[in-house]
């Protein structure tokens, strides 16, 4: 590398670090909000890292690049400053607009919003797990496409990330899988918001990571050569590697150096002035010396990408094209016949396999519930240490699973799915939220979707979960009434290409729908309609639709005209124009769903839902007990008329 | 101890284990559903543990008892069988009704439902953290009430618990705090649902716990004396102790011994028959030899409690009575004046301190955000290793925090609160759900409650969270419009005594309410009403109420009659009779809330809410951008008329 660290004298490196430090401090000062402490503390590490990362600022999406994750997203000033200095499409004006509405430089880094941001971070611990996801995706890419994908995954994280459970979960899996391309730099500054870390955190981090199968290195976080040596050793450790960089928060921030006060607020004009004086930095705010820009520049990336691309074989290029296209138009979906009985978790298993047959980048697994979630991809092998099948075994680590899938999705070559019981979607909610926020493509398979779970009881029966996930913006929740709708839901979801959840039954459901794709695309459609004038519309989803059909029969016996509206995707129904909705919402409207169901009031006059938690007992007994028998549905409908 | 292990011969112990094993297997077989593997695998450990635990079956709430947590709630057959054998109010008939609707023996153990169950478990990892909560509460009790509370906390857990992030978080805190009364027995059977644990889990568990400051012991899990020795050593280790018990899943289950197949399904009549033959167990199902019942009996607990109670001083008894009474009727709440500007996170901080002044069992803290959440209890000291103040430092471990508070609440002598940013309520959702399910008393303080968060941006701005938590049964969410309502909300919540969340602003809010307690008790009330006839009702909560008041002024200028309804607790409003609701819902109804808000359709014709995630920018700019300016509210209201 022509700009390698060893060719530079210490004075240059120090000048780079000082420039970076004050650029960040100036950004926070100008915004009058932000986190200067971590940016200043990590400036020296960032200078050295700049000499290691392989990126192409002119093409942030170069597939052969190293992946760089800033898990502590509050270090965003540092992130944007680096992107600017490296040559990404982040201007000095953007830095000056830090944390302002509509700027390219929001308070925490946002994927798809700013060039060079691999993943949205901020909620602590997520980035760590995302990095594990990148490393898993990298392994898969190497396996399918060769050594061109033997790039590194760098992750910078802090105490907050390492205290969060998700970091332990994902570190445990990374160690188990031996993800040697993963290098995590731990900014160990012994400070958190409440003060010294030893208020709450005294574990032996080295031992902890060694226990999980990692190599652990330490370095002085303000000593360029020491940092460089650690990064060089990490390249060849043969294991995922943690570099503990001992740093001082707010390094160079005059009397605030080392203080928790630098964490979440500007230094203030006075402190900043004194800090610059001490560093002999007699420049106006946002000043970057020209030669420093040259030293930071990653211009070399353009040539690196060119060479990389030239070395790819035609076959590899074709494989890449297949993976990138994410073309699901040729999937040979299974066919389910009217009257057939099939749990939607079972039909979903067949669908997942059909998709995986057609698109080789479809990968995933379960948090140790594959036999129950029906997520096994047959003849696709396991992803284990040294074995690169497509079936991931996430272990009993739902939270890491979701965040790892975010990493796999953002990697660009794969479409991941993950699975657990619906009630345990709670465990991965923060990761799912980020799927929605990033608008990436992760499929969440949630089986055991209601009181239909039966004997396992209240702890295992989702109640509030549909309301929760339907309230997440940019996220779609599919709850098909039967195996046939399940197929159509997947067709819709894959076409839309957004992250989505499939909420599926444990118990057998009779195939009673012969919907067309256009109907399911609307979110809801008239499944059945009496010949006589409709006085009541029953809206429902999933396992409650067939009881509604039976209730309709009972009502018809009393000469009441009914229609049954199946709503496999409430979120899509919300997007329909009023004219279409008017065809669904005829007469009085009763929504029937074995969930809390308050959101149904958007469409319905009354909701037959769950007012309490579930119970332990046979699923069929519970459906009756909680009022989802055809008789009770009919009775509630009758009362409304 | 007159029934100590050493006095019994091995044959007796084996007979006890065999009885227990087949009792559990029979229960699962009779229910035709359940988890025999873990129960049979742990039978030998359970026999030894029966000789260590100090419990009084005739008074399951004896304060001096050991606490026993079965973190793997799927071991419920074992739990109920033990409770029966020990002499708790669980009959043989109850065992035969295992997992049936309305039985005392649901699929997973439920707090308050079955005598002797300390905490509801099933969602993995929770019980582990609950046990840490019990141990923290035990330390506090010792500090306040003396050595009478130097009981042990036992926790049985499995691979599933230890793979979940929450177990690492809570173990890290337990080690940090040096909770020496905590003894966790890890049922290490090397099997999970997908098969061998080494599919996904290969960390060095001993090293991991040592890294977190624990003592680690190992024992052969089917060798009575070895188990006993480990339990004896654990008593005196001076640290929280993990006993790794190497067991075989489904021990004694004939050819299924050691197989994942014994995990989640009955053994089947044939296998069970062969298993009993091999064990020379020629008895009908559910048979328990009389002498075995005597050996298991914990009858001694009654005498133990008597002695324990006699030794309490009068002063200690009075202190216990104070803590148990949980009397909040004498709290000297702060007073806030109309027009005063105060963030509700700030008023809440003052309220927490007022409560802590009046009730000495009020304890809590934040997940490293105390200065932001305003949760510091002044002059109450820190809870650290060897120091028993009332301010807990949970570290950046939201999930463990919630579950630890469940343990502290269930302990019986304290009322805990915990805190984080509202958006990170996602991180602790599984624990919060269990607070609701158990109907215990944990207060969740969630500050930074909307786009009002400002510059930190979309990752830090809650959108779906109100909808989520309002959909949780038996849980109440308070979102006061100002400091005055904040006080009343606490009065209501403490009177109701249920777990609840307080959703509070980061930004200053003007005190504009002079509500009375009876009004807030209703969940919602008319805050302002035009003198002219009301054509439109504006329903709102929190920081959006004052903009609604301003919108009302704008509308009145156009001669439109308006009323503004403040809804500090949506959940309570749901419980009001129609007559009262009719006084609130006059004319067309527009709900205004900076959240997803679909549940408002229960009351409103239209909702002005959030359709997307938030953005980074100044809070005031965001309120305008997303439509929560008085002008836009008035305009939306006008459009409805």
TrEMBL record, chains A, B:
Its EC number is 2.2.1.1. Residues 342-511 form the Transketolase-like pyrimidine-binding domain. CDD domains: TPP_PYR_DXS_TK_like, TPP_TK. Keywords: Calcium, Magnesium, Metal-binding, Thiamine pyrophosphate, Transferase. InterPro entries: THDP-binding (IPR029061), Transketo_C/PFOR_II (IPR009014), Transketolase-like_C_2 (IPR055152), Transketolase-like_Pyr-bd (IPR005475), Transketolase_bac-like (IPR005478), Transketolase_BS (IPR020826), Transketolase_CS (IPR049557), Transketolase_fam (IPR033247). It is an enzyme of class 2 (transferase). It catalyses: D-sedoheptulose 7-phosphate + D-glyceraldehyde 3-phosphate = aldehydo-D-ribose 5-phosphate + D-xylulose 5-phosphate. The keyword Metal-binding applies. Binds 1 thiamine pyrophosphate per subunit. Binds 1 Mg(2+) ion per subunit. Can also utilize other divalent metal cations, such as Ca(2+), Mn(2+) and Co(2+). PANTHER family: TRANSKETOLASE (PTHR43522), TRANSKETOLASE 1-RELATED (PTHR43522:SF2). NCBIfam families: tktlase_bact (TIGR00232). Belongs to the transketolase family. Homodimer. This is Transketolase. It comes from Helicobacter gastrocanis.
């Amino acid at each position: 590398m022509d700009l390698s660290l060893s060719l530079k004298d210490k004075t240059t490196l120090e000048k780079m670090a000082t420039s970076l430090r004050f650029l960040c401090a100036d950004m926070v000062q100008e915004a009058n909000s932000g986190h200067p402490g971590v940016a200043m503390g990590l400036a020296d590490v960032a200078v050295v890292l700049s000499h290691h990362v392989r990126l192409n600022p002119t093409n942030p999406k170069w597939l052969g690049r190293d992946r760089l994750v800033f898990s502590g997203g509050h270090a965003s000033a540092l992130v944007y400053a680096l992107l600017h200095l490296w040559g990404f499409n982040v201007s000095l004006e953007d830095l000056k607009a830090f944390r302002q509405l509509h700027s390219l430089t929001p308070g925490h880094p946002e994927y798809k919003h700013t060039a060079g941001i691999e993943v949205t971070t901020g909620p602590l611990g997520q980035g760590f797990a995302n990095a594990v996801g990148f490393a898993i995706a990298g392994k898969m890419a190497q396996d399918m496409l060769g050594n061109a994908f033997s790039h590194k995954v760098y992750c910078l994280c802090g105490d907050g990330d390492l205290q969060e459970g998700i970091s332990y979960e994902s570190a445990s899996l990374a160690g188990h899988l031996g993800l040697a391309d993963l290098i995590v730099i731990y900014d160990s500054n012994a400070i958190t918001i409440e003060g010294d870390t030893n208020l709450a955190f005294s574990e032996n981090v080295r031992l902890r990571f060694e226990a999980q199968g990692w190599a652990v290195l330490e370095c002085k976080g303000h000593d360029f050569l020491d940092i460089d040596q650690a990064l060089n050793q990490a390249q060849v450790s043969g294991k995922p590697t943690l570099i503990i960089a001992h740093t001082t928060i707010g390094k160079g921030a005059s009397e605030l150096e080392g203080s928790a006060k630098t964490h979440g607020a500007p230094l203030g004009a006075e402190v900043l002035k004194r800090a610059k004086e001490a560093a002999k930095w007699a420049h106006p705010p946002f000043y970057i010396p020209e030669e420093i820009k040259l030293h930071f520049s990653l211009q070399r990336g353009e040539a690196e990408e060119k060479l990389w691309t030239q070395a790819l074989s035609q076959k590899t290029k074709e494989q890449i094209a297949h993976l990138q296209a994410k073309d699901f138009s040729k999937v040979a979906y299974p066919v389910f016949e009217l009257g057939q009985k099939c749990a939607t978790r079972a039909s979903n298993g067949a669908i997942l396999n059909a998709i995986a047959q057609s698109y080789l980048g479809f990968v995933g697994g379960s948090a140790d519930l594959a036999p129950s979630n029906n997520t096994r991809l047959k003849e696709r092998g396991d992803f284990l240490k040294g074995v690169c099948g497509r079936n991931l075994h996430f272990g009993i680590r739902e939270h890491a699973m979701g965040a790892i899938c975010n990493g796999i999705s953002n990697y660009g070559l794969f479409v991941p799915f993950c699975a657990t019981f619906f009630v345990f979607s709670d465990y991965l909610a923060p990761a799912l939220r980020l799927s929605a926020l990033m608008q990436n493509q992760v499929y969440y398979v949630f089986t055991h979707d209601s009181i239909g779970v039966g004997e396992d009881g209240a702890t295992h029966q989702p109640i509030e979960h549909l309301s929760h996930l339907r309230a997440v913006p940019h996220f779609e929740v599919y709850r098909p009434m039967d195996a046939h709708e399940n197929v159509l839901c997947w067709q819709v979801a894959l076409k839309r290409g957004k992250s989505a959840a499939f909420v599926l039954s444990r118990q057998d459901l009779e195939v009673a729908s012969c919907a067309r794709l256009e109907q399911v695309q609307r979110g809801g459609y008239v499944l059945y309609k009496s010949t006589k004038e409709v006085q009541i519309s029953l809206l429902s989803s999933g396992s409650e639709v067939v009881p509604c059909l039976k209730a309709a029969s009972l009502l018809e016996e009393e000469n009441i005209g009914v229609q049954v509206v199946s709503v496999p995707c409430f979120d899509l129904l919300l997007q329909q124009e009023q004219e279409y909705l008017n065809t669904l919402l005829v007469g009085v409207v009763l929504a029937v769903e074995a969930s809390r169901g308050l959101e149904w009031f958007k469409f319905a006059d009354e909701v037959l839902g769950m007012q309490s938690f579930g119970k332990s007992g046979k699923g069929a007994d519970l459906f009756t007990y909680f009022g989802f028998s055809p008789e009770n549905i009919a009775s509630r409908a009758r009362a409304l008329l």
